[in-house]
Amino acid sequence: MTEIRTPRLLLRRWTEYDLAPMAEINADPVVMEWIGDGSVLDLEQTAEAIERWEDGWDDEGFGLFAVELLGSGELAGFAGLSVPWFLPEVLPAVEIGWRLGRQFWGQGYASEAAHAALEFAHEDRALDRVISIARVGNEASENVMRKLGMELDHETTDPATGHRLSIHAIDLTQYV
Ligand SMILES: CC(C)(COP(=O)(O)OP(=O)(O)OC[C@H]1O[C@@H](n2cnc3c(N)ncnc32)[C@H](O)[C@@H]1OP(=O)(O)O)[C@@H](O)C(=O)NCCC(=O)NCCS
């Protein structure tokens, strides 16, 4: 069972107890504003997503971590690695991503979790390059990318939604 502890967070695999708090996060239109076509997800869709994320861990050996606050045990959201199948032009690639409940923004949790996930990518999974994909204008997400040391690689168009996307990348052989 893969788990990572950071000063304030536990990054871990998903359990049945994560469904309700993750569904609450996915049901918030402000959280979902810059994701896909901006639609929120209901409980059933969140259950399917968690199942996909867990299957991803089994298939790829990496995945999206459930991010838990060590202090309170609350689920803050997710951060971690996935294969961006929705954007074939960047494949083969591994993407780092993040999504936290609104009450957990502005406290450095996303960056703390993402930093640990990049270390995991390089040290545990021997990945040399990780990308991150955001809708152009998602400044909170691009801010996390910049703080991680990721650099803009190129912009492109999401084939499903027609939205402009920015692709950032980092060479993990240079990552400390
Ligand atoms: C993207 C997202 C995860 C970013 O979360 P966030 O809380 O803004 O990101 P961070 O963890 O980097 O924290 C940001 C701020 O916390 C503040 N902060 C407070 N305490 C802190 C601490 N102890 N350490 C570091 N930063 C701290 C900092 O001021 C920092 O802002 P700055 O970088 O301008 O200085 C969040 O906005 C989100 O979930 N959005 C919706 C989902 C989404 O769009 N996901 C990405 C799709 S591409």
Keywords:
176 residues; alpha+beta; Aminopeptidase; five-stranded antiparallel β-sheet; three-stranded antiparallel β-sheet; 5 helices; 27% strand; globular; binds coenzyme A; transferase; acyltransferase activity, transferring groups other than amino-acyl groups; GNAT_dom; RimJ/RimL family protein N-acetyltransferase
What's the gist of this structure?
The chain is an alpha+beta fold and about 180 residues long.
Task: Give the biggest sheet.
Answer: 5 strands, antiparallel
Number of strands: 8
CATH class wording: Alpha Beta
Helix share bin: 25-40%
Distinct small-molecule ligands in the complex: coenzyme A
Low-confidence spans: none
Assigned CATH superfamily: Gcn5-related N-acetyltransferase (GNAT)
Radius of gyration: 15 Å
Query: What is the CA-CA span between the terminal residues?
Result: 25 Å
Q: Which geometry do the CA atoms define?
A: globular
SS summary, helix count = 5
GO molecular function: acyltransferase activity, transferring groups other than amino-acyl groups
Protein name: RimJ/RimL family protein N-acetyltransferase
Organism: Kitasatospora gansuensis
Pfam family, one: Acetyltransf_3
Walkthrough of the structure:
With 176 residues, the protein is α+β, with helices and mostly antiparallel strands. The chain has one domain (4-174): Gcn5-related N-acetyltransferase (GNAT) (Aminopeptidase), CATH 3.40.630. Helices cover 31% and strands 27% of the residues. The chain contains five helices and eight strands; from the N terminus they run ββαααβββαβαββ. The strands form two sheets. Strands 1-2-3-4-5 form a five-stranded antiparallel sheet, sandwiched between helices. A three-stranded antiparallel sheet has the order 6-8-7. Helix 1 (19-26) crosses helix 3. The chain starts with a strand and ends in a 5-residue tail after the last strand. The mean pLDDT is 97. Coenzyme A is lined by residues 31, 34-35, 97-100, 105-111, 134, 138, 140-141, 143-144, 147. Residues 31, 34-35, 97-100, 105-111, 134, 138, 140-141, 143-144, 147 line the site of coenzyme A. It holds the Pfam family Acetyltransf_3. This is RimJ/RimL family protein N-acetyltransferase. Keywords: Transferase.
